[in-house]
Amino acid sequence: MDFLYTLVILLYLGVAGLLVYLVLVQEPKQGAGDLMGASADLFSARGVTGGLYRLTILLGVIFVALALVIGLWTR
After folding, report:
1. Which of 1, 29, 61, 71 could cross-link 34 (Cys pair, CB 3.0–4.6 Å)?
2. What pTM does this model have?
């Protein structure tokens, strides 16, 4: 059982590293209106940027799910 717990922790760390990388690789939105929430296309990403955006969301969901699993794990 300790092996499985260690595997989940390593997976969690890998997902965290990939998540940080993907957030840093994405291009920032341009314009001062984005700072005030005036962006109309906040959730409409296209092309390669759209793929990175979707992958970031997926890794974020996996990160949260693994955090819950690790938190509820009884050792």
Report:
1. 29
2. 0.73
